């Protein structure tokens, strides 16, 4: 005779796994990033009138992080200021893991409104090695370079 089998406890049902097709992309193509920015009322400008990531005079958003686009849109909404992107993922910026090319940084055109907002809302930290004053907290750092704001969105 077989020993009595124990009743098995009811198995827990696992929630469906989130697959890549159900997650937002980590990186965006230039056209998708530009569309999201336009829809949110942000502009972008290229000194070379182009979007090629491999040309220094272009302003490219190719392979920018989705979170970077979301964060710059949030900056515009919080500040109520015009925001125009003048630098993205194109070559010509300093390298590094949290760089423009890696999709973590954007340059924006300074204007009285956005400059006042950043200086009022984010604490002064220090002067960067190149002389740019740094403002920010937690993950976002704003560097005031001579002709633009260089922003790191972490």
Word description of this protein:
- Helix content is 22%, strand content 23%.
- By secondary structure, it is an alpha+beta fold.
- The protein starts with 26 loop residues before the first strand and ends with a strand.
Question: Keywords for this structure?
Answer:
7-stranded mixed sheet; alpha+beta; 154 residues; 22% helix; 9 strands; two-stranded antiparallel ribbon
Instruction: Provide the gyration radius in Å.
Output: 22 Å
Low-confidence stretches: 14-20
Instruction: Assign a percent range to the helix content.
Output: 10-25%
Total beta-strand segments: 9
Largest sheet: 7 strands, mixed
Task: Give the SSE layout.
Blueprint: E1 27-28, H1 30-39, E2 43-44, E3 64-65, H2 66-79, E4 84-87, E5 105-108, H3 112-121, E6 124-127, E7 133-137, E8 140-145, E9 148-153
Parallel strand pairs: 2-4
Antiparallel strand pairs: 1-3, 4-5, 5-9, 6-7, 7-8, 8-9
Quick structural overview:
This protein has 154 residues and is an alpha+beta fold. It contains three helices and nine strands, in the order βαββαββαββββ. The N and C termini lie far apart (66 Å).
